[in-house]
Design brief:
The protein has 313 residues and is α/β, with parallel strands linked by helices. Helix content is 39%, strand content 21%. It contains 9 helices and 11 strands. Strands 3, 4, 5, 6, 7, 8, 9, 10 and 11 form a 9-stranded mixed sheet that branches. A two-stranded antiparallel sheet has the order 1-2. Strand 1 and strand 2 form a beta hairpin. The longest helix is centred in the first third of the chain and has 28 residues. The protein is elongated and about 85 Å long.
Length: 313
């Protein structure tokens, strides 16, 4: 049997039909007639010397040989598409696609993007807010900004912020707050999107680190940290806020930190991309801009003191 591969069009027809388990749906996807698709699959079977589909009354199913062939053909087309997208992205110097988490996007990145656009009018910036893992080989993404404690060592990675947290509230609420114990009588705002951190960085951990009893877990819970910050801005309670999400409001006085103790999270924001891609002109310019914009963020609380975290089981 010859190892010569059949025409690419025949393999494409087989891959689509095997994925849909339908000649008609595969034909629709490939924008050909069912007869044309059937002809391509028949030519593949003749080339291989064996049937890859059983034609039933109103359906098709893979033969054993078809079942062996389908995964490899599917992976092959995925690899081709990934390689094609990678080359197209590298050649496209006019577009930059960035993704970051929804909270960081809403509270820090989005309000500042106009300055990047002003400095780089030749770059068309496309942005996607999301928390999902990025597959740079498959997803149409050039750069990601991610928050966590572990990062893929196979990617280029640069630390932007070593994140910490502290009680933040409106100036009105802060009038009678001078020590951690004062927080016990206030509405505490909780954030569920950082529950994955180990050790935890929550109110219980903060009170433990300050050696103040944590009476009970009261107050509303928010699935997104930016919503908790919004509640604090509205005077709805005290948020154990993250610097990255509240720096603007601390800087202009809409939020204050009357207690100058902060809790390290052990997590950081990092900018990541495939190794080597950081040297692409538009990627390099974006990284340089983010690093510059974020450099002075910690000046809003330079006199704050770190607490030692205690295990929170």
């Amino acid at each position: 049997m010859s190892d010569r591969l059949p025409p690419l069009s025949a393999l494409r027809a087989f891959e689509a039909a095997a994925r849909h388990m339908s000649f008609s749906r595969a034909a629709d996807e490939l924008n050909v007639t069912p007869a044309a698709l059937s002809f391509q699959i028949k030519s593949l079977e003749e080339h291989l010397g064996v049937l890859v589909f059983r034609r039933l009354n109103r359906a098709v199913e893979l033969t054993e040989e078809g079942q062996l062939l389908a995964p490899g053909v599917s992976d092959g087309f995925d690899a081709l598409q990934s390689a094609w997208r990678a080359v197209k992205r590298r050649l496209n110097s006019a577009t930059l696609t960035v993704t970051a988490g929804p909270a960081f996007t809403a509270k820090w990145l989005a309000p500042k993007l106009f300055s990047f656009a002003k400095e780089n009018p030749d770059i068309e910036l496309r942005f996607s807010a999301g928390l999902g893992l990025v597959d740079f080989a498959r997803d149409d993404v050039d750069v990601a900004i991610r928050f966590g404690q572990e990062f893929d060592p196979l990617l280029y990675s640069r630390t932007l912020i070593d994140e910490w947290m502290a009680p933040m509230m409106s100036p009105e609420l802060a009038k009678n707050v001078t020590e951690v114990a004062d927080l016990q009588r206030m509405t505490l705002l909780h954030q569920e999107d950082i529950d994955f951190l180990k050790p935890p960085a929550n109110w219980r951990a903060y009170f433990a680190a300050a050696e103040v009893p944590y009476i009970e877990e009261h107050g509303p819970r928010f699935s997104q940290a930016d919503h908790a910050v919004d509640a604090a801005l509205a005077g709805g309670g005290v948020v154990l806020g993250r610097l990255s999400l509240a720096a603007t409001y601390l800087g202009d006085g809409r939020l204050v930190m009357p207690i100058r103790h902060r809790l390290p999270t052990g997590a950081s924001y990092r900018i990541v991309c495939p190794k080597g891609q950081e040297a692409r002109p538009q990627v390099a310019r974006f990284i340089e801009w983010v690093v510059r914009e974020i450099a002075g963020m910690d000046t809003v609380a330079q006199d704050a003191r770190f607490l030692l975290r205690q295990p929170d089981e």
